[in-house]
Amino acid sequence: MTTPAAPRHPLSLFFRGVGDLGRGFAFWGRLPGAMALGLIPAAIVGALLLGGIITLAVFLGDIVTALTGFADGWSDIAASLVRFGIGAGLLGGAIVLAVVSFTALTLLIGDPFYERIWRSVEGHLGDAPPESDYGFWRSVGDSIGLILRGLLAAIVAALIGLIPLVGTVLGAVVAAFLTGWLLADELTSRAFMARGLDAVARRNLRRADRARVLGFGVATQLCFLVPLGAVIAMPAAVAGSTVLARTLVDARASVGQAGDTTAPPRRRNGA
After folding, report:
1. Which is a GO BP term held by this UniProt record (predicted)?
2. Could you tell me if 211 and 9 are in contact, meaning their C-beta atoms sit under 8 angstroms apart?
């Protein structure tokens, strides 16, 4: 009888998720043609959203001043703290929304390009790519849902940013984890759905290895914050999410919990 592997520390699993993104970047060397095509929609959406963020930053002072007229009679220190917190919250929330919107819009606009990356990665990892009934309208629905959830995450981050002294840092940390989870959720959906997993099964798989999923998502989100990082990282994120999804499905199958909706265990290159 095989002895079950001992549970790993959440921090170890988190960094394993970061490694999944690294394995996605490795596909730049293995599948350069397919990966390069993924730059096109990412560059278009990235330029539009970056322009919006820059515009907000330019007019942020005027916006904050207009929103904080109630603080005009306060002491300079108190008014400055409140205005700084509101400004940081607004900018942080906008960045969260931009990151999530970037993923949703890029996947929607570039669906044929990312379909090719996904299929190429599946084939490279040893199996013929499963058929995917993703479809355009499903992509539209998923994109709208992701943007709405991103808006909620942005509001939460902005509200936390209002907390005096610690709000800016705490809001940034919460935003990174919320956004990371949303990104991992969206990016792994195609590989999961191709294997016949419904929404409940997909959610259970992610929650069963929450730390690893978060590691992948947070690492992806941080790459998106680097100038031009989102454009370069998007194809890698699609490839890495495919590796991650396959690993989660195979791990479930290996302990006899896959049922009829998952493929049998198989060797994973680089997973």
Report:
1. sulfate assimilation
2. no
Question: Distance between CA atoms of 271 and 269, rounded to whole angstroms?
Answer: 6
Q: Is position 263 within any domain?
A: no
Residue found by looking up tokens 């992806």 in the block: 220
Q: Which of 115, 99, 91 is nearest to 168 (CA)?
A: 91
Cα–Cα distance, 127 to 43 (Å, whole number): 31
Is 265 within a domain? no
Question: Residue holding tokens 């400055």?
Answer: 80
CB 102 within 8 A of CB 230: yes
C-alpha–C-alpha distance, residues 34 and 119, integer Å: 10
pLDDT for 110-153, tens place per residue? 888 898 999 899 888 876 556 656 566 666 777 777 778 878 88
Establish if 40 belongs to a structural domain. yes
Tokens representing 185 are 């959720």
Amino acid letter, residue 194: A
For 68-135, where are the alpha helices, taking DSSP H only?
76-109, 111-124
* Cα-based distances in Å from 116 to 36, 84, 216, 230: 11, 45, 21, 19
* Residue 92 forms part of a structural domain: yes
Q: Report the distance separating Cα 41 and Cα 32, nearest Å.
A: 16
Alpha-carbon gap, residue 78 to 158, rounded angstroms: 19
Domain count of the fold of the chain: 1
Domain residue limits at 173 = 10-254
Q: Is 257 helix (H, G, I), strand (E, B) or coil?
A: coil
